[in-house]
Protein backbone atom coordinates (compact mmCIF):
# COMPACT_ATOMS: atom_id res chain seq x y z
CA UNK A 1 0.00 0.00 0.00
CA UNK A 2 1.28 3.43 -0.85
CA UNK A 3 0.10 5.46 2.13
CA UNK A 4 0.43 9.20 2.55
CA UNK A 5 1.67 10.60 5.79
CA UNK A 6 1.03 14.07 6.99
CA UNK A 7 3.72 16.44 8.15
CA UNK A 8 2.74 19.51 10.12
CA UNK A 9 1.56 22.00 7.58
CA UNK A 10 3.42 25.16 7.25
CA UNK A 11 1.19 28.04 7.82
CA UNK A 12 1.84 30.34 4.88
CA UNK A 13 4.24 31.41 2.13
CA UNK A 14 5.26 34.82 0.90
CA UNK A 15 3.10 36.03 -1.94
CA UNK A 16 4.29 38.72 -4.26
CA UNK A 17 1.96 41.05 -6.08
CA UNK A 18 2.35 41.58 -9.79
CA UNK A 19 1.61 44.65 -11.83
CA UNK A 20 -0.54 44.27 -14.87
CA UNK A 21 -0.09 46.64 -17.76
CA UNK A 22 -2.29 47.13 -20.73
CA UNK A 23 -1.52 48.50 -24.15
CA UNK A 24 -3.79 50.13 -26.66
CA UNK A 25 -3.59 49.07 -30.24
CA UNK A 26 -4.11 51.57 -33.02
CA UNK A 27 -3.61 51.90 -36.72
CA UNK A 28 -0.36 53.42 -38.15
CA UNK A 29 -2.23 56.55 -39.32
CA UNK A 30 -3.83 57.23 -35.94
CA UNK A 31 -0.47 56.66 -34.24
CA UNK A 32 1.16 59.22 -36.54
CA UNK A 33 -1.58 61.78 -35.84
CA UNK A 34 -1.34 61.12 -32.13
CA UNK A 35 2.44 61.68 -32.12
CA UNK A 36 1.96 65.07 -33.80
CA UNK A 37 -0.35 66.15 -31.01
CA UNK A 38 2.27 65.50 -28.31
CA UNK A 39 4.06 68.73 -27.39
CA UNK A 40 7.84 69.00 -27.13
CA UNK A 41 7.96 69.01 -23.32
CA UNK A 42 6.03 65.78 -23.09
CA UNK A 43 8.25 64.21 -25.76
CA UNK A 44 11.33 65.32 -23.80
CA UNK A 45 9.93 63.78 -20.60
CA UNK A 46 9.34 60.50 -22.40
CA UNK A 47 12.94 60.42 -23.63
CA UNK A 48 14.28 61.44 -20.22
CA UNK A 49 13.16 58.13 -18.70
CA UNK A 50 15.94 56.37 -20.58
CA UNK A 51 18.60 59.10 -20.23
CA UNK A 52 18.73 59.45 -16.44
CA UNK A 53 22.18 59.61 -14.84
CA UNK A 54 22.66 56.57 -12.61
CA UNK A 55 24.64 58.51 -9.97
CA UNK A 56 21.90 61.13 -9.65
CA UNK A 57 19.26 58.45 -9.37
CA UNK A 58 21.16 56.72 -6.56
CA UNK A 59 21.63 59.94 -4.60
CA UNK A 60 17.96 60.75 -5.00
CA UNK A 61 17.01 57.21 -4.03
CA UNK A 62 18.91 57.44 -0.75
CA UNK A 63 16.89 60.41 0.49
CA UNK A 64 14.58 59.43 3.41
CA UNK A 65 11.33 60.22 1.60
CA UNK A 66 8.32 58.38 3.02
CA UNK A 67 6.26 56.04 0.89
CA UNK A 68 2.88 54.38 1.12
CA UNK A 69 2.80 50.84 2.48
CA UNK A 70 1.06 49.53 -0.61
CA UNK A 71 3.72 50.72 -3.07
CA UNK A 72 3.91 48.42 -6.04
CA UNK A 73 6.94 46.27 -6.76
CA UNK A 74 8.03 48.12 -9.83
CA UNK A 75 8.27 51.46 -8.02
CA UNK A 76 11.39 52.64 -6.25
CA UNK A 77 11.09 51.88 -2.56
CA UNK A 78 12.91 54.47 -0.50
CA UNK A 79 14.04 54.45 3.11
CA UNK A 80 11.47 54.61 5.84
CA UNK A 81 12.04 55.42 9.48
CA UNK A 82 12.94 52.54 11.77
CA UNK A 83 11.58 52.33 15.28
CA UNK A 84 13.68 51.66 18.34
CA UNK A 85 13.92 48.60 20.58
CA UNK A 86 12.20 45.38 19.51
CA UNK A 87 10.92 46.93 16.28
CA UNK A 88 14.39 47.59 14.85
CA UNK A 89 15.16 43.97 13.96
CA UNK A 90 11.70 43.45 12.50
CA UNK A 91 11.96 46.59 10.36
CA UNK A 92 15.43 45.61 9.14
CA UNK A 93 14.19 42.16 8.19
CA UNK A 94 11.12 43.53 6.44
CA UNK A 95 13.25 46.03 4.53
CA UNK A 96 15.69 43.31 3.46
CA UNK A 97 12.96 40.97 2.28
CA UNK A 98 11.09 43.74 0.49
CA UNK A 99 14.24 44.95 -1.25
CA UNK A 100 15.29 41.42 -2.14
CA UNK A 101 11.92 40.80 -3.77
CA UNK A 102 12.12 44.01 -5.79
CA UNK A 103 15.68 43.36 -7.01
CA UNK A 104 14.91 39.72 -7.83
CA UNK A 105 11.89 40.86 -9.85
CA UNK A 106 13.97 43.36 -11.82
CA UNK A 107 16.70 40.80 -12.52
CA UNK A 108 14.08 38.32 -13.70
CA UNK A 109 12.69 40.94 -16.09
CA UNK A 110 16.19 41.54 -17.42
CA UNK A 111 16.67 37.87 -18.28
CA UNK A 112 13.35 37.84 -20.16
CA UNK A 113 13.97 41.08 -22.05
CA UNK A 114 17.52 40.08 -22.90
CA UNK A 115 16.26 36.92 -24.58
CA UNK A 116 13.85 39.00 -26.67
CA UNK A 117 16.52 41.55 -27.59
CA UNK A 118 14.55 44.49 -26.22
CA UNK A 119 17.64 46.60 -25.57
CA UNK A 120 15.91 49.79 -24.46
CA UNK A 121 14.01 47.85 -21.81
CA UNK A 122 17.10 45.87 -20.83
CA UNK A 123 19.01 49.06 -20.12
CA UNK A 124 16.19 50.78 -18.22
CA UNK A 125 15.74 47.65 -16.08
CA UNK A 126 19.50 47.53 -15.43
CA UNK A 127 19.37 51.16 -14.24
CA UNK A 128 16.49 50.39 -11.87
CA UNK A 129 18.14 47.25 -10.51
CA UNK A 130 21.38 49.21 -9.94
CA UNK A 131 19.47 51.88 -8.04
CA UNK A 132 17.66 49.33 -5.90
CA UNK A 133 20.87 47.49 -5.01
CA UNK A 134 22.74 50.69 -4.11
CA UNK A 135 19.84 51.91 -2.04
CA UNK A 136 19.61 48.58 -0.22
CA UNK A 137 23.33 48.62 0.61
CA UNK A 138 23.11 52.25 1.75
CA UNK A 139 20.07 51.66 3.97
CA UNK A 140 21.38 48.48 5.52
CA UNK A 141 24.79 49.98 6.28
CA UNK A 142 23.09 52.95 7.95
CA UNK A 143 20.90 50.69 10.10
CA UNK A 144 23.39 47.99 11.07
CA UNK A 145 27.17 47.55 11.12
CA UNK A 146 28.05 45.39 8.13
CA UNK A 147 30.23 42.30 8.76
CA UNK A 148 33.60 42.34 6.88
CA UNK A 149 32.77 39.28 4.74
CA UNK A 150 29.54 40.94 3.66
CA UNK A 151 31.36 44.14 2.72
CA UNK A 152 33.36 42.19 0.13
CA UNK A 153 30.16 40.96 -1.51
CA UNK A 154 28.70 44.46 -1.43
CA UNK A 155 31.70 45.98 -3.22
CA UNK A 156 31.80 43.24 -5.85
CA UNK A 157 28.04 43.43 -6.39
CA UNK A 158 28.03 47.22 -6.83
CA UNK A 159 30.85 46.98 -9.36
CA UNK A 160 29.01 44.33 -11.36
CA UNK A 161 25.77 46.34 -11.29
CA UNK A 162 27.60 49.37 -12.66
CA UNK A 163 29.25 47.23 -15.32
CA UNK A 164 25.85 45.85 -16.26
CA UNK A 165 24.42 49.35 -16.60
CA UNK A 166 27.32 50.54 -18.77
CA UNK A 167 27.39 47.55 -21.09
CA UNK A 168 23.62 47.64 -21.68
CA UNK A 169 23.89 51.35 -22.53
CA UNK A 170 26.43 50.56 -25.24
CA UNK A 171 23.88 48.28 -26.90
CA UNK A 172 21.48 51.19 -27.38
CA UNK A 173 23.72 52.94 -29.91
CA UNK A 174 24.22 50.20 -32.51
CA UNK A 175 22.25 48.03 -34.88
CA UNK A 176 25.14 45.65 -35.56
CA UNK A 177 23.58 42.20 -35.13
CA UNK A 178 26.94 40.46 -34.66
CA UNK A 179 27.95 42.95 -31.93
CA UNK A 180 24.58 42.64 -30.20
CA UNK A 181 24.78 38.85 -30.25
CA UNK A 182 28.20 38.89 -28.57
CA UNK A 183 26.96 41.49 -26.08
CA UNK A 184 23.92 39.34 -25.28
CA UNK A 185 26.19 36.49 -24.17
CA UNK A 186 28.39 38.84 -22.12
CA UNK A 187 25.39 40.50 -20.46
CA UNK A 188 23.84 37.12 -19.66
CA UNK A 189 27.06 36.07 -17.92
CA UNK A 190 27.29 39.32 -15.94
CA UNK A 191 23.60 39.14 -15.05
CA UNK A 192 24.05 35.59 -13.73
CA UNK A 193 27.00 36.79 -11.61
CA UNK A 194 24.92 39.68 -10.29
CA UNK A 195 22.07 37.34 -9.35
CA UNK A 196 24.41 34.94 -7.54
CA UNK A 197 26.27 37.74 -5.74
CA UNK A 198 23.02 39.41 -4.72
CA UNK A 199 21.62 36.14 -3.38
CA UNK A 200 24.78 35.53 -1.33
CA UNK A 201 24.76 39.07 0.03
CA UNK A 202 21.10 38.84 1.07
CA UNK A 203 21.74 35.49 2.77
CA UNK A 204 24.58 37.06 4.74
CA UNK A 205 22.46 40.06 5.68
CA UNK A 206 19.59 37.84 6.81
CA UNK A 207 21.99 35.65 8.77
CA UNK A 208 23.30 38.80 10.47
CA UNK A 209 19.76 39.86 11.42
CA UNK A 210 18.93 36.35 12.62
CA UNK A 211 22.02 36.37 14.85
CA UNK A 212 20.72 39.57 16.43
CA UNK A 213 17.41 37.88 17.21
CA UNK A 214 19.07 34.76 18.61
CA UNK A 215 21.33 36.89 20.80
CA UNK A 216 18.21 38.64 22.06
CA UNK A 217 16.68 35.26 22.98
CA UNK A 218 19.83 34.03 24.72
CA UNK A 219 20.77 37.17 26.64
CA UNK A 220 17.46 38.70 27.67
CA UNK A 221 15.58 37.96 30.90
CA UNK A 222 12.43 39.71 29.70
CA UNK A 223 9.58 37.45 28.63
CA UNK A 224 8.30 40.23 26.37
CA UNK A 225 11.67 40.75 24.67
CA UNK A 226 12.26 37.03 24.13
CA UNK A 227 8.70 36.56 22.89
CA UNK A 228 9.16 39.37 20.39
CA UNK A 229 12.36 37.82 19.03
CA UNK A 230 10.68 34.40 18.76
CA UNK A 231 7.76 36.00 16.87
CA UNK A 232 10.20 37.53 14.38
CA UNK A 233 11.91 34.17 13.86
CA UNK A 234 8.57 32.42 13.39
CA UNK A 235 7.57 35.04 10.83
CA UNK A 236 10.81 34.42 8.93
CA UNK A 237 10.24 30.66 8.80
CA UNK A 238 7.12 31.28 6.73
CA UNK A 239 9.27 32.64 3.88
CA UNK A 240 10.42 29.20 2.78
CA UNK A 241 12.98 26.43 3.34
CA UNK A 242 15.97 28.60 2.40
CA UNK A 243 15.38 30.96 5.30
CA UNK A 244 14.68 28.02 7.62
CA UNK A 245 18.09 26.61 6.69
CA UNK A 246 19.80 29.91 7.53
CA UNK A 247 17.90 30.14 10.83
CA UNK A 248 18.90 26.58 11.75
CA UNK A 249 22.56 27.10 10.85
CA UNK A 250 22.72 30.18 13.05
CA UNK A 251 21.71 28.11 16.10
CA UNK A 252 18.07 29.10 16.60
CA UNK A 253 16.97 25.57 17.54
CA UNK A 254 19.59 25.43 20.29
CA UNK A 255 18.48 28.79 21.69
CA UNK A 256 14.80 27.86 21.59
CA UNK A 257 15.32 24.58 23.45
CA UNK A 258 17.24 26.48 26.14
CA UNK A 259 14.05 28.47 26.67
CA UNK A 260 12.00 25.26 26.82
CA UNK A 261 14.24 23.89 29.58
CA UNK A 262 13.69 26.81 31.95
CA UNK A 263 10.59 26.81 34.15
CA UNK A 264 10.53 30.60 34.37
CA UNK A 265 9.77 30.76 30.64
CA UNK A 266 6.89 28.24 30.68
CA UNK A 267 4.59 30.79 29.09
CA UNK A 268 6.89 30.82 26.05
CA UNK A 269 7.08 27.04 25.54
CA UNK A 270 4.25 26.85 23.00
CA UNK A 271 5.56 29.83 21.01
CA UNK A 272 9.11 28.48 20.98
CA UNK A 273 8.05 24.96 19.99
CA UNK A 274 5.90 26.24 17.14
CA UNK A 275 8.98 28.00 15.79
CA UNK A 276 11.06 24.83 16.22
CA UNK A 277 8.46 22.85 14.26
CA UNK A 278 8.66 25.35 11.41
CA UNK A 279 12.47 25.30 11.36
CA UNK A 280 12.51 21.50 11.34
CA UNK A 281 10.99 21.41 7.86
CA UNK A 282 14.67 21.29 6.77
CA UNK A 283 17.37 18.75 7.62
CA UNK A 284 19.59 21.35 9.31
CA UNK A 285 16.86 22.04 11.86
CA UNK A 286 16.43 18.36 12.71
CA UNK A 287 20.20 17.90 13.03
CA UNK A 288 20.34 20.78 15.50
CA UNK A 289 17.43 19.30 17.46
CA UNK A 290 19.24 15.97 17.67
CA UNK A 291 22.48 17.57 18.88
CA UNK A 292 20.80 19.26 21.85
CA UNK A 293 18.75 16.16 22.83
CA UNK A 294 15.61 17.97 21.79
CA UNK A 295 13.62 14.74 21.72
CA UNK A 296 14.16 14.28 25.46
CA UNK A 297 12.92 17.81 26.03
CA UNK A 298 9.84 17.10 23.90
CA UNK A 299 9.16 13.93 25.89
CA UNK A 300 9.46 15.87 29.16
CA UNK A 301 6.95 18.50 28.03
CA UNK A 302 4.51 15.92 26.63
CA UNK A 303 4.56 13.80 29.79
CA UNK A 304 4.48 16.71 32.24
CA UNK A 305 0.91 16.93 33.50
CA UNK A 306 1.53 20.52 34.62
CA UNK A 307 2.30 21.58 31.02
CA UNK A 308 -0.54 23.50 29.42
CA UNK A 309 -2.32 21.88 26.48
CA UNK A 310 -0.94 24.45 24.03
CA UNK A 311 2.65 23.54 24.89
CA UNK A 312 1.95 19.80 24.59
CA UNK A 313 0.18 20.36 21.25
CA UNK A 314 3.15 22.26 19.84
CA UNK A 315 5.50 19.55 21.13
CA UNK A 316 3.33 17.07 19.20
CA UNK A 317 3.71 19.29 16.14
CA UNK A 318 7.50 19.06 16.41
CA UNK A 319 7.25 15.26 16.69
CA UNK A 320 5.03 15.17 13.60
CA UNK A 321 7.50 17.33 11.73
CA UNK A 322 10.65 15.36 12.55
CA UNK A 323 8.93 12.06 11.70
CA UNK A 324 7.63 13.39 8.38
CA UNK A 325 8.28 11.22 5.31
CA UNK A 326 9.67 14.23 3.47
CA UNK A 327 12.94 13.97 5.37
CA UNK A 328 15.55 11.73 3.79
CA UNK A 329 17.74 11.50 6.89
CA UNK A 330 16.65 9.09 9.63
CA UNK A 331 19.65 9.38 11.93
CA UNK A 332 17.66 11.38 14.48
CA UNK A 333 15.13 8.54 14.82
CA UNK A 334 17.66 6.44 16.73
CA UNK A 335 17.42 8.73 19.75
CA UNK A 336 13.66 8.97 19.21
CA UNK A 337 13.24 5.23 19.77
CA UNK A 338 14.64 5.59 23.30
CA UNK A 339 11.75 7.86 24.28
CA UNK A 340 9.12 6.38 21.98
CA UNK A 341 7.04 4.62 24.64
CA UNK A 342 6.69 7.79 26.72
CA UNK A 343 5.96 9.93 23.65
CA UNK A 344 3.36 7.55 22.19
CA UNK A 345 1.65 7.26 25.56
CA UNK A 346 1.52 11.03 25.95
CA UNK A 347 0.24 11.54 22.40
CA UNK A 348 -2.66 9.11 22.68
CA UNK A 349 -3.63 10.73 25.99
CA UNK A 350 -3.55 14.09 24.24
CA UNK A 351 -5.85 12.72 21.54
CA UNK A 352 -8.26 11.57 24.25
CA UNK A 353 -8.27 14.85 26.16
CA UNK A 354 -7.96 17.31 23.25
CA UNK A 355 -10.13 20.36 23.71
CA UNK A 356 -10.32 21.23 20.01
CA UNK A 357 -9.74 19.90 16.51
CA UNK A 358 -6.32 21.50 16.06
CA UNK A 359 -4.87 19.82 19.15
CA UNK A 360 -6.26 16.44 18.08
CA UNK A 361 -4.90 16.93 14.55
CA UNK A 362 -1.35 17.63 15.76
CA UNK A 363 -1.31 14.71 18.20
CA UNK A 364 -2.84 12.23 15.73
CA UNK A 365 -0.54 13.38 12.91
CA UNK A 366 2.46 12.64 15.12
CA UNK A 367 1.07 9.19 15.96
CA UNK A 368 0.30 8.46 12.30
CA UNK A 369 3.91 9.16 11.32
CA UNK A 370 5.32 7.17 14.23
CA UNK A 371 3.30 4.05 13.33
CA UNK A 372 5.06 3.90 9.97
CA UNK A 373 8.67 3.60 11.04
CA UNK A 374 8.44 1.15 13.95
CA UNK A 375 5.98 -1.70 14.50
CA UNK A 376 6.62 -1.44 18.24
CA UNK A 377 4.61 1.80 18.22
CA UNK A 378 1.58 -0.13 16.92
CA UNK A 379 1.90 -2.68 19.71
CA UNK A 380 2.18 0.10 22.29
CA UNK A 381 -0.94 1.77 20.91
CA UNK A 382 -2.95 -1.44 21.12
CA UNK A 383 -1.90 -1.84 24.75
CA UNK A 384 -3.04 1.73 25.41
CA UNK A 385 -6.56 1.08 24.07
CA UNK A 386 -5.89 3.39 21.11
CA UNK A 387 -8.59 1.91 18.86
CA UNK A 388 -11.28 2.74 21.39
CA UNK A 389 -9.91 6.27 21.91
CA UNK A 390 -9.62 7.05 18.20
CA UNK A 391 -13.00 5.64 17.20
CA UNK A 392 -14.69 7.49 20.05
CA UNK A 393 -12.97 10.67 18.92
CA UNK A 394 -14.49 10.23 15.46
CA UNK A 395 -17.91 10.60 17.07
CA UNK A 396 -16.89 13.91 18.67
CA UNK A 397 -17.09 16.75 16.14
CA UNK A 398 -15.25 19.02 18.54
CA UNK A 399 -12.12 16.89 18.08
CA UNK A 400 -12.50 15.26 14.65
CA UNK A 401 -14.07 17.95 12.53
CA UNK A 402 -12.18 17.86 9.22
CA UNK A 403 -11.03 15.32 6.61
CA UNK A 404 -7.46 16.08 7.72
CA UNK A 405 -8.11 14.69 11.20
CA UNK A 406 -9.95 11.69 9.77
CA UNK A 407 -6.97 11.09 7.49
CA UNK A 408 -4.73 10.72 10.56
CA UNK A 409 -7.17 8.40 12.35
CA UNK A 410 -7.60 6.07 9.39
CA UNK A 411 -3.82 6.08 8.76
CA UNK A 412 -3.25 4.83 12.31
CA UNK A 413 -6.01 2.22 11.93
CA UNK A 414 -4.50 1.04 8.63
CA UNK A 415 -1.12 0.54 10.26
CA UNK A 416 -2.62 -1.15 13.32
CA UNK A 417 -4.62 -3.51 11.12
CA UNK A 418 -1.49 -5.48 10.18
CA UNK A 419 -1.53 -6.89 13.73
CA UNK A 420 -3.85 -9.86 14.22
CA UNK A 421 -4.91 -8.82 17.72
CA UNK A 422 -6.33 -5.60 16.23
CA UNK A 423 -9.28 -7.40 14.64
CA UNK A 424 -11.25 -8.22 17.78
CA UNK A 425 -10.93 -4.67 19.11
CA UNK A 426 -12.15 -3.15 15.84
CA UNK A 427 -15.20 -5.41 15.88
CA UNK A 428 -15.85 -4.67 19.52
CA UNK A 429 -15.71 -0.89 18.93
CA UNK A 430 -17.90 -1.12 15.81
CA UNK A 431 -14.97 -0.05 13.71
CA UNK A 432 -16.31 -1.56 10.49
CA UNK A 433 -19.26 0.82 10.62
CA UNK A 434 -16.84 3.72 11.01
CA UNK A 435 -14.74 2.53 8.05
CA UNK A 436 -17.84 2.43 5.85
CA UNK A 437 -18.69 5.99 6.89
CA UNK A 438 -15.14 7.03 5.98
CA UNK A 439 -15.60 5.39 2.56
CA UNK A 440 -18.31 7.98 1.99
CA UNK A 441 -16.15 10.96 2.94
CA UNK A 442 -16.73 13.94 0.64
CA UNK A 443 -15.29 17.47 0.62
CA UNK A 444 -17.50 20.24 1.95
CA UNK A 445 -15.84 22.85 -0.28
CA UNK A 446 -14.05 23.19 -3.60
CA UNK A 447 -10.66 23.32 -1.85
CA UNK A 448 -8.14 21.08 -3.67
CA UNK A 449 -6.39 20.21 -0.40
CA UNK A 450 -9.66 19.13 1.20
CA UNK A 451 -10.50 17.04 -1.84
CA UNK A 452 -7.11 15.35 -1.68
CA UNK A 453 -7.62 14.66 2.04
CA UNK A 454 -10.97 13.01 1.31
CA UNK A 455 -9.32 10.80 -1.31
CA UNK A 456 -6.71 9.69 1.23
CA UNK A 457 -9.45 8.93 3.76
CA UNK A 458 -11.34 6.78 1.24
CA UNK A 459 -8.20 4.99 0.07
CA UNK A 460 -6.94 4.16 3.55
CA UNK A 461 -10.41 3.12 4.75
CA UNK A 462 -10.54 0.61 1.86
CA UNK A 463 -7.01 -0.61 2.62
CA UNK A 464 -7.87 -1.06 6.30
CA UNK A 465 -11.04 -2.95 5.40
CA UNK A 466 -9.09 -5.23 3.05
CA UNK A 467 -6.50 -6.02 5.71
CA UNK A 468 -9.05 -6.68 8.43
CA UNK A 469 -11.13 -8.86 6.12
CA UNK A 470 -8.52 -11.59 6.42
CA UNK A 471 -10.59 -12.53 9.44
CA UNK A 472 -13.87 -14.29 8.42
CA UNK A 473 -15.82 -12.53 11.17
CA UNK A 474 -14.76 -9.11 9.84
CA UNK A 475 -15.59 -10.09 6.26
CA UNK A 476 -19.02 -11.34 7.30
CA UNK A 477 -19.70 -8.17 9.30
CA UNK A 478 -18.63 -5.96 6.39
CA UNK A 479 -20.93 -7.81 4.00
CA UNK A 480 -23.86 -7.53 6.41
CA UNK A 481 -23.25 -3.79 6.65
CA UNK A 482 -23.43 -3.52 2.84
CA UNK A 483 -19.75 -2.80 2.27
CA UNK A 484 -19.85 -4.52 -1.13
CA UNK A 485 -22.37 -2.15 -2.80
CA UNK A 486 -20.41 0.85 -1.56
CA UNK A 487 -17.11 -0.52 -2.84
CA UNK A 488 -18.69 -1.34 -6.22
CA UNK A 489 -20.10 2.20 -6.39
CA UNK A 490 -16.67 3.67 -5.72
CA UNK A 491 -15.17 1.46 -8.44
CA UNK A 492 -17.76 2.25 -11.08
CA UNK A 493 -18.40 5.93 -10.35
CA UNK A 494 -15.36 8.20 -10.82
CA UNK A 495 -17.17 11.14 -9.23
CA UNK A 496 -17.75 9.14 -6.02
CA UNK A 497 -13.99 8.69 -5.66
CA UNK A 498 -13.15 12.16 -7.03
CA UNK A 499 -11.51 10.50 -10.08
CA UNK A 500 -8.82 9.06 -7.82
CA UNK A 501 -6.89 6.06 -9.15
CA UNK A 502 -5.49 5.21 -5.71
CA UNK A 503 -9.02 4.93 -4.27
CA UNK A 504 -10.02 2.71 -7.20
CA UNK A 505 -7.11 0.30 -6.65
CA UNK A 506 -7.78 0.10 -2.90
CA UNK A 507 -11.50 -0.56 -3.45
CA UNK A 508 -10.80 -3.27 -6.02
CA UNK A 509 -8.40 -4.93 -3.56
CA UNK A 510 -10.99 -4.78 -0.75
CA UNK A 511 -13.69 -6.22 -3.03
CA UNK A 512 -11.48 -9.12 -4.05
CA UNK A 513 -10.63 -9.87 -0.43
CA UNK A 514 -14.34 -9.97 0.49
CA UNK A 515 -15.16 -12.06 -2.58
CA UNK A 516 -12.46 -14.58 -1.66
CA UNK A 517 -14.13 -15.23 1.68
CA UNK A 518 -17.77 -14.86 0.57
CA UNK A 519 -18.15 -15.45 -3.19
CA UNK A 520 -21.94 -15.29 -3.03
CA UNK A 521 -21.85 -11.69 -1.81
CA UNK A 522 -21.10 -10.35 -5.30
CA UNK A 523 -23.43 -10.59 -8.28
CA UNK A 524 -22.32 -12.39 -11.44
CA UNK A 525 -21.96 -9.26 -13.58
CA UNK A 526 -19.83 -7.50 -10.98
CA UNK A 527 -17.80 -10.65 -10.47
CA UNK A 528 -17.19 -10.91 -14.20
CA UNK A 529 -15.85 -7.35 -14.45
CA UNK A 530 -14.34 -6.55 -11.04
CA UNK A 531 -13.17 -9.87 -9.60
CA UNK A 532 -12.42 -12.38 -12.35
CA UNK A 533 -10.05 -10.34 -14.59
CA UNK A 534 -6.54 -9.36 -13.62
CA UNK A 535 -6.45 -6.40 -11.29
CA UNK A 536 -4.95 -4.18 -13.97
CA UNK A 537 -7.73 -5.09 -16.42
CA UNK A 538 -10.44 -4.27 -13.91
CA UNK A 539 -8.62 -1.03 -13.15
CA UNK A 540 -8.55 -0.02 -16.83
CA UNK A 541 -12.21 -0.90 -17.23
CA UNK A 542 -13.28 1.23 -14.26
CA UNK A 543 -10.99 4.17 -14.94
CA UNK A 544 -12.23 4.48 -18.55
CA UNK A 545 -8.74 5.09 -19.84
CA UNK A 546 -8.90 6.35 -23.42
CA UNK A 547 -5.56 5.00 -24.59
CA UNK A 548 -4.50 3.03 -27.58
CA UNK A 549 -2.41 -0.02 -26.81
CA UNK A 550 -1.75 -0.84 -30.46
From TrEMBL:
One of its GO terms (biological process) is apical protein localization. This is Protein inscuteable homolog. PANTHER family: INSCUTEABLE, PROTEIN INSCUTEABLE HOMOLOG. One of its GO terms (molecular function) is cytoskeletal anchor activity. Residues 99-550 form the Protein inscuteable homologue C-terminal domain. It comes from the Eukaryota. Residues 36-82 form the Protein inscuteable homologue LGN-binding domain.
Amino acid sequence: MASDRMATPQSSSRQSSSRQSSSLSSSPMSTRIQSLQVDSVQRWMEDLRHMTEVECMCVLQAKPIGVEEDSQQGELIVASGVGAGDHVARNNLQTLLRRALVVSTELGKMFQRLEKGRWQRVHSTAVRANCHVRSLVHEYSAARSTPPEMQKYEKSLLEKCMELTNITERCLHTDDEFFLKSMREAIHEILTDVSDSFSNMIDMALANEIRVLIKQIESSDSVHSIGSAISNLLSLTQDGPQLCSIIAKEGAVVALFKICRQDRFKDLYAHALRTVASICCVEEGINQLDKVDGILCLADILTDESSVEAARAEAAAVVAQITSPHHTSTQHLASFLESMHDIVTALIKLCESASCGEVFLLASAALANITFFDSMACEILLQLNAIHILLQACKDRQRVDTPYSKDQVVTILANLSVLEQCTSEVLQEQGIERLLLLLGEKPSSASPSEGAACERVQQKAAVTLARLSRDPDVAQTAIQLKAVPRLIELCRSPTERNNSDSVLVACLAALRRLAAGCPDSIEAADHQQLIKPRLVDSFLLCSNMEESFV
